[in-house]
User: What shape does this take?
Amino acid sequence: MNRPDMHEPPAKDRLPVAALLALAMTGFVCIMTETLPAGLLPQLGAGLSVSPSLAGQTVTVYALGSLLAAIPLTLATRTWRRRHVLLLTIAGFLVFNSATAWSSSYVLTLAARFLAGASAGLAWSLLAGYARRMVAAPLQGRALAVAMVGTPIALSLGTPLGTWLGILLGWRLSFAAMSLLTLVLIGWVLAKVPDYPGQSGMQPVPLRSVLTTPGVRPVLVVVVTWMLAHNLLYTYIAPFVAMAGLGQSVDAVLLVFGVAALSGIWVTGRIVDRHPRAAVLASLAAFALVSLTFGLAGRSPAVVYAGVGVWGLTFGGAATLLQTALADAAGEGADVALSMNVVTWNGAIAGGGLLGGVLLDHLGAGAFPWAMLVWLTAGFAVAFRAHPYGFPRGHRAAAIQVPGYPLETAVDVEH
Assistant: This one.
């Protein structure tokens, strides 16, 4: 049994909102840094004297940095104190966004974007475990929901605002603004976020051992299927909604999605600790029903708007639900498992874009809902069969004490 470090703040019975919002702001910075070039490709290309398609590779190399760096950086820093690692990732955004803002070299910009992606990979593998550690086990799901709220805010509000600022005042100013935001965030973390020890003095959990822990692989499979379906549609939302005559209203469609996603993360925060399995199954089933409806009546604007709203509602809590399930299943190997989640998630982003491109070229956007339905049905089947380890029934505080669950998680329940 692992004894809490004598300097480690005890788990609390109330949510440390200020500290959790600092983690949410870190996630906001991750998403903003990733998506900002997408809305500014012509300006970025002109500033670096390259074509918009080459400018688009700044998004690709960012995702590649996250994908390649998440696991090795997580393993390399697992013995470090947690706040030191968090500050390292934020400092990475400060340095590499500043380099992007000042760079006039395309190669240097790509390098800065790759390293910013590496910072994001480490951040995403850290945030969920950090949020869970701040509270007692019965509140871990709600804590994670607060810590993840930066993602839908960035997607629905931050990226459009950054794009508007970049078009109005220049793309370099948008990246410089991100650097200023990270300076504020560093002060916020130092003032409000508690520090915790790493795994110094503990036997490191091998990567293969984490992957073979009961429940870990089923959750990762659900991550793949769910995020493939999501990214297939999200990446190619413009050609899909154009079939319903909404080609000039993509911004309005995405606004509906973003507002619904914010609602989804609020709902998830209310139910994730009490009914985690039911929330996952209901989300997958609802998204599958939307896919079926899109396949049958996707040329109706009213159907598209309603479906996008339900889709956003199911997606808003996806990160919270899946990371909670994965960390619960992995126990002491949670940080490593969550780094696997970063790799899996980014792989699904790339896979969704690739699959969507093939379908669009050969079958048209009308094929998207049917492909999504296949992936979501598979994900639902895996989640449904993953009891008791991957997606256990009942309240998390009771479910994670079933025989075979990692000891660290059971100890957390006793706080």
